[in-house]
Fold these 2 entries.
Entry 1:
Amino acid sequence: MTVGALAGCGSSSGSSSSGSSTAAQADTTAADVTTESADEAVSALTEAGDTAAASGDLITVGFAQVGHESDWRTASTNSVQAALSKENGIDLQFVDCDNDSAAQLDAVRNFIQQGVDYIVIDPIVSTGWDTVLTEAEDADIPVIVIDRTIDDSDKYTAWVGSEFTNEGLAAGAWLKAYAEAKGISDLNILEITGTTGSSAEIGRTKGFHQYIDDNGWNLLDSQTGDFTQDGGQQVMESYVKSYAGQFNVVICQNDNEAFGAIDAMDAAGVSYGVDGDVILISFDACSAGLTDVLAGKINADFQCNPLQGPDCLNLIQKLEAGEEVPKQTFMAEPWYVAEDILPNITYTNNAGEEVTEDLIVVDQSIIDADY
Ligand code: AHR
């Protein structure tokens, strides 16, 4: 566990593309935070923060981050640190929990003991939270949850993040339509999942497996790569030995796992991507992932938006002003593809609505604007 202002290896983004989701929105129960309002909050608090910082009267926030396992995580950390800054009137304590759930609970308890004004949590796993959230509630400290969800307690003030099940459903809908367009009738799938018990893993698996089940696709194997490049590589190295010549789809639950799978397939002489024998699917759509989409190595990449910093700031500003905040805010998330074959996909989302969503063919300008 690392405490301090840890900057990761990915690109830093100074502004947010977050906001109300049109593509991936599910059963939001209250008005969403919008990009505009989050950006306005940044500038309003920047002005207020200049005065607060000068007087030393800062809002104290503790942020228990998952870790530093992926490019996505680096972008998330950078986004929160940029928004919850001294210039914006906030004294941020950052804890990198290194994917250790016990360390994350300790970090939150430590924030409670210190009596911070707000706690921000990106929960490594979705369960085991009720006791510590009760302790935060008893101490009157509002908790803001970002990215992954907490599924066994509602004792937090607000959550902003992704509709992971829709990401998995969209991947399934795309694969079905793509295979039909290419005349591929048999799909033999190898899956590399994310951190077991995280809501990102649970939702993506649930959504994609619905398509496996409904279409009778053959899932040869599913193992976790823990959202890391090393994990993806190790799982794929074992898959290419155990399933040599038997698979034509690899789905990785994040870009870093896909990079590891690519290295393993390269080493084993397996061809993949637009001109290959294996369809490669990923999630996150970080700039390095989209670079592989543009190169035709990854066929489709389903975005998970990591830029929650401005939304956090907006929530804190509203709470400071005594305003109501929405319990849930879904990030906008587009779907990216390598080939201009299908304009869109239609599927029934996790809220039971039939939606038609665009497929965006990646070009360099999209990568340049990415995180
Ligand atoms: O919770 C979001 C997931 O966590 C991202 O897909 C992954 O890259 C990260 O590690």
Entry 2:
Amino acid sequence: MENRGLVIVHTGDGKGKTTAALGMAIRAWGNHLRVLILQFIKGSWKYGELESIKALASINDQIEIRQGGLGFSQRGSGAEEEHRCAAAELLQTAMDELRSDAWDMIILDEFNYAYSFGFISLDELEQLLSVRPEKTHLIFTGRNAAQELIDRADLVTEMRLIKHPFQQGIKAQKGIEF
Ligand code: ATP
Ligand code: MG
């Protein structure tokens, strides 16, 4: 069987982009692939899955999660420069880790958010894709995936909002939202 790394995108306005990436991480880890998760937005991975990853990581060191980004913010707010720096730092981490070839799957969670805010350029995206080892899967999540990313991807899924409990005023549920 040919092992070929895929460029994967989870986008759209419906729920499930990050959790689908987690599903892939679990599937990959179970296949003895080494999985690195980089969070472009702090808090995008919730307590529940952090505990699960911690449990997997205690079994072996083939899964790791690193927070690099900042919390949500509005463009133009005073914190913009900080967000830009946090995104640049995490991007550098992603490049270094890809170059080191230490992972079979790297998840760039909420990358699309950082990209759509202009914190990451097309040049940087291209560099990221070009340093990717042939067998490494790279997963990008977040709403509003850029067309240039979609064009370069092998697998793109759009989660489309049909209904969300928040619309009925139902609060976040344990195991579903956190
Ligand atoms: P999840 O982490 O549950 O897979 P996601 O990655 O698809 O969600 P994000 O865009 O990262 O969604 O948004 C994160 C949070 O916003 C989640 O808690 C999610 O439930 C909530 N959310 C996602 N889509 C919607 C929506 N259409 N309406 C309201 N809240 C939403
Ligand atoms: Mg998400």
